[in-house]
Specification:
Strands 9, 10, 11, 13, 14 and 17 form a 6-stranded antiparallel sheet that branches. The chain has a 4-stranded antiparallel sheet with strand order 1-7-3-4, with no helix packed on it. Strands 6-5-2-8 form a 4-stranded mixed sheet, with no helix packed on it. The radius of gyration is 22 Å and the shape is globular. It is built from 5 helices and 18 strands. The protein is an alpha+beta fold. It has helices at 9-23, 31-54, 192-220, 362-365, 369-388; strands spanning 79-85, 92-97, 103-110, 120-126, 137-143, 150-151, 156-164, 174-179, 228-229, 233-234, 243-250, 255-262, 268-274, 289-291, 302-308, 317-319, 325-333, 346-351.
Length: 389
């Protein structure tokens, strides 16, 4: 029996390096910051090890590289992310069935997200660009030749699929991929050498993951004044029909931020809070995100979100869960026209006790503690069903 331990040496070293990076992260100020960093590290270890074993380039399958326990890149609570490794020399067929998603989108990327830049978006489209049968089923081909539905440009390396849900209890879709020349064959058996290569790949991925997502906030958020948000803009490296509005907050316990945004005629509008680790806050057990399906819309057609640590007693309360600082993110998807600053949010910071006088429909915004608890229970149930779907 081979009892060598050096097969995992690279991963062990990478975990130690990633831990040092997290402990030295510039935003770490409190024990909570550091504890969340170690949770973030655990998620990164799970994700990169999983990808190293599940990500077969010659026999591709869709895997989740980010999710509730493997968060990165300010993951959207409304989105299920799937990805697979591809290359520009082979032909692939994607089969699926559209579930109850608001937006189902596909993106081919060249390269990877790194601490020096974003990968090139080679192809990006949603399901309006493909033939979807009456029962929701579809078939898409990708390959190096123009005979396929979508021709792969040189350097194509990833296919990413996003399912975006407004109603978390909506039925899940299905998705699978085949590489035409390896369909019906099996990958080679594992060897000690192949195991070491996979551990090495996980090691590189883990350190790169930590470096990369510590840089993104510096580029796109932290150069903005606190407690402000940008107007709608195309998401860097994102989808062709996606706009986003970004910012970061810094609030005391006696303050609240009021975000007012028009409920425009866009299929998907979502908002979330993020931690300084550039990940979503706990969106299952707390209301730290809301989309247009979940949020209360006022009679004037606007959505008013209240962000605070203390409960203001209104339906659209976003909980900061002990985070005095964090990220703010709106997303509009499946857009059919350019968005303007008038479509974006207005921002106001007020005293928590002054919230009622800043809400023109305050009486209809009020919610009882029991009813708010019921909202959280509904999130928990929908999430559990979706996770197993």
């Amino acid at each position: 029996m081979d009892t060598r331990t050096e097969v995992t040496d690279s991963l062990q070293s990478a975990i130690a390096e990633a831990e040092r990076l997290i402990a030295a992260a510039p935003h770490v100020r409190t024990a909570q910051d550091l504890a969340e960093g170690y949770r973030y590290l655990a998620g990164g270890i799970m994700a990169t090890v999983h990808a190293a074993w599940a990500g077969e380039r010659d026999h591709p399958t869709f895997i989740q590289g980010t999710g509730p326990y493997m968060k990165m890149g300010l993951d959207n609570p409304d989105t299920l992310y799937f990805g697979t490794r591809i290359d520009d020399k082979h032909e692939y067929v994607v089969y699926g069935k559209r579930g109850g998603t608001i937006d189902l989108s596909f993106q081919v990327l060249s390269g990877n997200y790194t601490d020096t830049g974003v990968p090139e978006s080679v192809v990006a489209f949603d399901d309006r660009g493909i033939d979807v049968a009456a029962d929701g089923s579809f078939r898409i081909t990708f390959g190096p030749n123009s005979s396929t539905d979508f021709q792969l440009a040189p350097g194509s390396s990833q296919l990413v699929v996003r399912e975006v849900y407004g109603d978390w209890s909506a039925p899940r879709g299905t998705i699978r991929i085949e590489r035409t020349d390896t369909l019906g064959t099996a990958p080679p058996p594992d060897t000690v050498e192949s195991a070491q290569r996979r551990f090495d790949r996980a090691a590189r991925g883990l350190v790169s993951r930590v470096h990369t997502w510590l840089k993104f906030p510096e580029w796109f958020y932290l150069n903005l004044p606190a407690n402000t948000m940008t107007g709608p803009r195309h998401t860097p490296g994102g989808l062709a029909t996606q706009y986003s509005s970004a910012g970061h907050y810094e609030l005391n316990d006696d303050q609240a931020m009021i975000l007012t945004v028009p409920r425009i005629d866009v299929p998907y509008l979502g908002f979330q809070l993020g931690s300084m680790w550039y990940t979503s806050l706990d969106y299952v057990n707390h209301q730290t995100s809301l989309n247009a399906h979940q949020a209360q819309v006022d009679p004037d057609g606007k959505i008013r979100l209240i962000i605070s640590e203390r409960n203001p007693g209104v339906t659209n309360w976003l909980e900061t869960t002990g985070h005095r600082r964090g990220f703010l993110q709106f997303r509009w998807q499946r857009t059919s026209r350019p968005l303007t600053p008038e479509d974006g949010p207005e921002v106001a910071v007020v005293g928590i006790d002054e919230v009622p006088q800043h809400l023109p429909f305050y009486e209809s915004n009020v919610i009882s503690p029991a009813d708010f608890r019921a909202r959280i229970a509904a999130r928990q149930a929908a999430f559990a069903d979706r996770l197993l779907g």
